[in-house]
TrEMBL record:
InterPro entries associated with the record: Aur1/Ipt1, IPC_Synthase-Related
Name used for this protein in its record: Membrane protein
Subcellular localization: Membrane
PANTHER family: PA-PHOSPHATASE RELATED-FAMILY PROTEIN DDB_G0268928 (PTHR31310:SF7), PTHR31310
Parts of the chain that traverse the membrane: 85-103, 115-133, 175-194, 201-218, 224-243
Main location: membrane
Occurrences of domain Inositolphosphotransferase Aur1/Ipt1 (ranges): 53-240
Topology term for the membrane: Multi-pass membrane protein
The keyword Transmembrane helix is annotated on this UniProt entry: yes
Domain of life: Bacteria
Length: 314
């Protein structure tokens, strides 16, 4: 027996996400992130002081993994060159690719994942603004770091002054080291692969990609170890805030674009077409009345004839 819904209690389906609305949203968030990095350059001397403070704290806690990794990547080109390509390219490729894959193949998880990523990105932007930090590669040579991207710049598309296309190094904020969103975005990618990849290979990549990125950002002297830790912490806070952000966005959307609800009469039955309901045996409203007005009795049969009807001639 087919199930029917109680009139007036129909559930309005959630608006389906469309790529032509999602793409501008993502580009807007990335544009805000890039513009914010440029606007939040901060004072260079303060950025250097922050970088040195982080380095002293790591040495006090025996967490200084940057120096041995940086010496290894500088000494071995077969490690240093791929690491520079990894740092300069993969976050531009892997993160958007996984967003597109989630949108097409895991649509039920896409909205939450996208909101998590964007919320964390904005939190990272706040960190760049409040705590401009000089990366290890820009400290004076006496601190023992080598900028591997400048060292191997002849191998790649980036310039010697920054991890940006040649001639565009001045258009980037090189003091946006804390937190490391390279590590944060890589962690997001790893979680997506682990949870939604569906294969053992995807799970392995979900573990290796964020771990590899953490080693790369330190080995290329672009981030401190604590920058990577802060990137993980930012993603954790973003994950906790994502449900609340979605609720706020839903409230704003409902205020701006209210949904229409079915109108019901006092008896609880839906009113259709201003009271022109159809009754049994009708395909259009008042079909039976029009037949009666025309003098045709509906569903007439021989048994419906009166007893006084004339008998057929013999």
């Amino acid at each position: 027996m087919p199930q029917t819904e109680t009139p007036g209690t129909e559930v309005v389906p959630r608006t389906r996400l469309r790529w032509w609305t999602e793409l501008p949203l993502i580009l807007l968030v990335y544009g805000c992130y890039s513009a914010g990095r440029l606007l939040a350059r901060g004072d260079v001397s303060s950025a250097v002081d922050h970088g040195l403070a982080i380095l002293r704290l790591e040495k006090a806690l025996h967490l200084n993994a940057e120096h041995p990794l940086n010496r290894l990547f500088t000494r071995e080109p077969w490690l240093g060159v791929p690491a520079d390509f990894w740092y300069a390219s993969l976050h531009y490729l892997v993160t958007p690719a996984l967003l597109i894959w989630l949108f097409r193949a895991r649509a039920e998880h896409y909205r939450r994942a996208r909101t998590w990523l964007m919320t964390s990105t904005f939190i990272g932007l706040i960190g760049f603004t409040l705590l401009p930090t000089c990366p290890p590669r820009l400290l004076s040579a006496g601190h023992g770091f080598v900028d591997t991207m400048a060292h191997y710049s002849s191998y790649g598309w980036w310039g010697g002054e920054a991890s940006a296309p040649r001639g565009m190094g001045g258009m980037t904020n090189q003091y946006a080291a804390m937190p490391s969103l390279h590590v944060g975005w890589a962690l997001w990618c790893g979680v997506m692969l682990w949870r939604h990849g569906g294969t053992r290979v995807a799970k392995i990549l979900g573990v290796l990609y964020p771990l590899g990125t953490a080693l790369v950002v330190m080995g290329t002297a672009n981030h401190y170890f604590l920058d990577a830790v802060a990137g993980v912490a930012v993603m954790g806070v973003g994950l906790l805030l994502a449900p609340r952000v979605m609720r706020v966005l839903d409230l704003v959307r409902d205020r701006l674009f209210p949904r229409r609800t079915p109108v019901t009469d006092t008896a609880g039955s839906p009113i259709v077409s201003a009271g022109c309901q159809t009754s049994a045996g009708e395909r259009i409203p008042r079909q039976r009345e029009s037949r009666l007005d025309a003098g045709a009795e509906p569903d007439a049969s021989p048994s419906d004839a009166g007893e006084g009807a004339a008998a057929p001639a013999r």
